[in-house]
Design goal:
By secondary structure, this protein is mainly alpha-helical. It contains five helices and no strands.
Length: 141
């Protein structure tokens, strides 16, 4: 998916989501102030980070977005300002990503990473998951 297609998808979602969300914010006594970057632009940049090979958001924003995507996002803000704006789109971002879920086909992928609940020496004193969790063994022990 190209940046333009991603942005159009996110912006279409934002156009439907924003009026109800703004109404809910106003009735609760809060409001969103307009920013230099449009919320769908912020959400697009965050989604692009998840699709990139960068491990750190700061490197992604300063080395890639500010250098190579300035023509796509002409009103870019500094890194520190962008980090301040990120929480303002958390709820719409989660709602957008939830709308992108596909239908379950019956095939699921699971992570088999072991979860160490407590140290083996204290296993009999630990009662948090009593009756639900069982002792297991991994390939490493």
């Amino acid at each position: 998916m190209s940046i333009l297609e991603l942005f159009c998808s996110v912006d279409d979602f934002w156009q439907h989501f924003a009026p109800n969300w703004h109404h809910d914010l106003l009735t609760s006594g809060r409001r969103l102030r307009p920013n230099q970057l449009y919320p769908s632009e912020i959400m697009t940049i965050i989604i692009l980070f998840q699709q990139s090979h960068y491990r750190a958001f700061k490197a992604y924003y300063t080395e890639y977005v500010q250098r190579h995507l300035r023509s796509e996002f002409p009103t870019l803000v500094s890194y520190s300002r962008f980090v301040e704006l990120m929480p303002t789109v958390l709820i719409p971002l989660v709602a957008n990503l939830h709308t992108q879920l596909g239908h379950c086909t019956g095939i699921s992928f699971i992570d088999s990473t072991s979860l160490a609940v407590c140290h083996n020496a204290r296993i009999h004193q630990h009662c948090v998951f009593a009756g639900r969790a069982a002792r297991g063994k991994t390939s490493v022990g």
